[in-house]
Amino acid sequence: MGGGIAQLAASAGHNVLLFDSFTGASAKAVERIKAGLDGLVKKGKMDEAKMNGILSKIKVGGVLEDFAQCGFVIEAVIEDLEVKKDLFRKLESICRPDAVLATNTSSISVTSIAAACKESGRVIGVHFFNPAPVMPLVEIIPGLATETSIAQKVTEFIKSWGKVTVLAKDTPGFIVNRVARPFYGEAIRIYEEGIADIADIDWAMKEIGGFKMGPFELMDFIGNDVNYMVTETVWRQMFFDPRYKPSITQKRLSEAGFWGKKSGRGYYNYAEGAAQPTSNKDTKLGNEIFMRIISMLVNEAFEALYYKIANREDLETAMTKGVNYPKGLIAWGEEIGLKKVLATLEGLSETYNDDRYRPSVLLKRSVN
Asked: Which run of H or E residues covers position 322?
């Protein structure tokens, strides 16, 4: 992720310093950047002069103190609050007073990270999506202490890189990682209950829902270790709200090292020649699966709007640009019929007597 952000910044014409505490990691990141750009050259999407121009702007730092003259610093280290706080303490003591300190965290409170700094007003969340050079969305997350002028300045700065920005409140998961949780969680619940196999669920969400990837394919692509970690982080930070509760299935795959494509095995087996499960393509079952998952997603979007996590436009943009959903969830719910969405949730709530299916107050008000 750090290498991808460095590539973006250099492509926008900025001089970039890339540093990793692990010896050789920064140099390897530059090699990956070069390999990716070289691929674009071979495909005719970039000329060699432009590639060399981008690479010339990226330098590898030897020590953290090399950031002393940088005006904008983005960290992309492990998702661990104490690690990030320690890093920001060091950066504040090293960087010039007017430097903006940004975190690329996907699920940790920006306010908590900023609390490590004496001047927490210059700390802000700038959350890119992977791969950063390709995905258009960036979530801008001011902490409670972030200066308004810093948020405005950073928003315009990231837009100048060609990115689409959305403004999110500093709450667990921000927009995308909060609203998208049912896409994974409810799919796993359906699988765990034996209602449908993973191939059936993925088929339903792609064929009937129009999603580019099914939930299990996407979890394998993201990494089941990462997906589980984000789910658990959001759940804990939301004071164990049942809506975000992780599953044993997720936990076991993460523990086993079945992380998906990057490990060769996840919900699917990626070994060469491995047999893959196939869907029965049962349309009736597929519609039931789609309606259950989409109702949970629409409900979560309404809940985010109700609690002012973001405005409607940014919520819709975040889900279409950040995770490539076919439609904005609020508009999609209106298209399906909010009364039908509400009835689905109320039916699930009555069947399971589980608070995870409670309808959003805003959804109920929108129907009434």
From this structure: helix 312-322
